[in-house]
Amino acid sequence: MTTPTKPPTTDQIRTAWDTLAPGFDRHTTPHTMQFGEQILAEAAVGPGTRFLDVAAGSGALALPAARRGARVVAVDIAPAMVERLASRARAEGLEQVRALVMDGEHLDLDDDAFDVSASLNGVSLFPDLGRGLAEMARVTRPGGTVLVAAFGPPQKAEFIAWTLGALRAAVPGFAGLPTDPPPLPFRLADPERFAAVLREAGLGEVTVRQAVMDTPFGSATELLDTIRSSHPLGAQWIAGLTEAQSTEVRQILEGMLRERSGGAPGAVLHTTINVATGTP
Questions:
Q1: Is the peptide bond before 178 cis (omega within 30 degrees of 0)?
Q2: Which GO molecular function terms does the record list (predicted)?
Q3: Domain 10-279 falls under CATH 3.40.50.720
Q4: How far is CA 185 from CA 98, 154, 181, 231, in A?
Q5: Which of 75, 113, 171, 280 has its CA at a distance of 20 to 30 angstroms from the CA of residue 100?
Q6: Helix (H, G, I), strand (E, B) or coil at 5
């Protein structure tokens, strides 16, 4: 049994993600953008699609959608994330991207304004998940698509599972991930619960399928940089290490990567992602 903790305030959430933004943009977005391209192709996002990216980070869904010709609005609660998304869009000449600072639980957007509203490991982190999903449904036109992708089980996110294993080996008493309840990134790991939550938000024709995100890591350092920048919890894990523990964790991970790749310094790790769609 775990001790209840007070949920973070909106300002605390904003500050945490603002702090992570430089590393998130450098390490996490390039990895997840390839997966974003994959699921957008399957959702038939194309020229003229009115597309909303909720909790957009620095653009793993928004930018691939714009490249496909969609008219994109991307929102995130963290101003630093929004600025990095806008900078990426400007660098690519994607003038059809509007990047806005906005709380996804309270979208300042019109009803029925989008053909597709999507979120990749974003709305699943909201303190009020049901509210976030209901807002996505509200701003999506009848017959449109709400697309939500979220992590499957932690053990099937190898970049996390491998790091947790290395931390347990190097840090006496390391607690790892809580299980009751699980951390927010894994609250939709069960496909049946995921589908039920979407239906509770007012969506119909709900489907949930599992996909695999393949992520190449060139070194243990790159892997740890990704863990550090991808979520405040990962940042806490790495920040709490002594120099000796950090060295040991890195050595363990280097060995695991080399074993996976047959002796090369880097390897591809696999992550199961639940990809759900529903219709308002």
A1: no
A2: methyltransferase activity; oxidoreductase activity
A3: no
A4: 26, 9, 11, 9
A5: 280
A6: coil
